[in-house]
Amino acid sequence: MSYHFKCILCGSEYDPKTTRYVCPKHGDDGILDTIFDYKQINATTSRRAISDSRDFSIWRYAPLLPLDDALKSAPPLHVGWTPLYRSTTLGPQFGLSNLYFKDDGRNPTASFKDRASAVVVAKARELGVEIITTASTGNAGAALAGLAAAAKMPTVIFVPQTAPPAKIAQLLIFGARVILVKGTYDQAFDLCLEASKEFGWYCRNTAFNPYTVEGKKTASIELCEQLGWKAPDIIFVSVGDGNIISGLWKGLRDLLALGWIDKMPKLIGIQAEGSAACYNAWKAGTEKITVVNAQTVADSISADLPRDGVRAVRAVRETGGAYLTVTDDEILAAIPELARGEAIFSEPAASAVYAGLKKAVKQGLVKSDEKVVCMLTGNGLKDIASAMKVAGAGTVIEPTLDAVKKMKFT
């Protein structure tokens, strides 16, 4: 496929064969967009051809991915084509007739991050690298560990020591070399970059590696196809490092450029009140991302300095969307509401989206007949400790029928 890289800051263009990660002029801040020859894509494939595919995974979109031979290099795990549920309970409660939830917790390692890791691992196989590394709050690392295990590639994962045990367990069980950093995610990120440069490891770090956003864009392509190649009016998504909302925006821009959808949805980013660097920049009308001291129960969206913050702010601003913040109490309360209303068990970062939707409805940001999609990025089993804070407790009884009869069930 014909494609090249373009710096989001200065517009300089680069050949992927000679530039692997970021713009040489701007260093780590010079994130690269992948630019395609859309005429070439339209000449070789179509919406109809993709819809006729029997490969119900992200690889059905191989013609839209920057890989030489995706089907040959793809790791053998089923990633993507996750369920898109039309709301039967919560939507009607809010007077929304077209509310949908896309449950990416159904991916193989139970998070949205599998999409990015699948594409990065595929690219790593094409490049012939030996070791892949990344920094993560847990989900990206688990995704890389799982996809790399499927491809029989060794990994080194840097993760904050405070990450939820369930996420650390995933890293270890897939055989990754796990380095628990006594510090924040941002410190783990910087250490991972230093180590990858020192040892020559292939780095998957969010935004630093341009192929992460290409993997994440498959979610927006997928949901548009699931809606009959019709773009929704609004997409809600939680935002930490900013790479997921940037990926959704990239997929939508690709589809619009190809003429496969006829409008750009509004993107509404939801941040935890205690980790709101992108919200702050958007509210101030700037692209300058100022460091915050991130403190939130939603570890997956906790970031002092969002590494893809500039694109994350642009994604909202250029689609006419908005940023909203939600408190940790609102995030935790949303977990059982979403589970009991729609039977989807979400981790805090995912439930933040539903908490944000509730706030957006109250503020009049959503019309009753608009087609709205909430992107749920991770399964609740990722963080049982948070879920148990709001789940309630079981009733302990003696093992007798009389004990059951004494209980109230109405």
Number of helices: 17
Rg value = 21 Å
What is the mean predicted local confidence, pLDDT? Answer: 96
CATH architecture of the domain at 84-110 and 212-390: 3-Layer(aba) Sandwich
Measured as a percent range, the helix fraction is 25-40%
CATH fold-level label of the domain at 84-110 and 212-390: Rossmann fold
The largest sheet is: 6 strands, mixed
> What would CATH call the class of the domain at 84-110 and 212-390?
Alpha Beta
Across the major sheet, the strand order is 4-5-13-10-11-12
| Cα distance spanning the termini | 62 Å
Spans where pLDDT lies below 50 across 5 or more residues? none
Q: How many strands in all?
A: 13
- Which structural class do the helices and strands define? alpha/beta
CA-based shape: globular
Q: Return the string of H and E elements.
A: EEEHHHEHEHEHEHEHEHHEHEHHEHHEHH
Strand composition percent: 5-15%
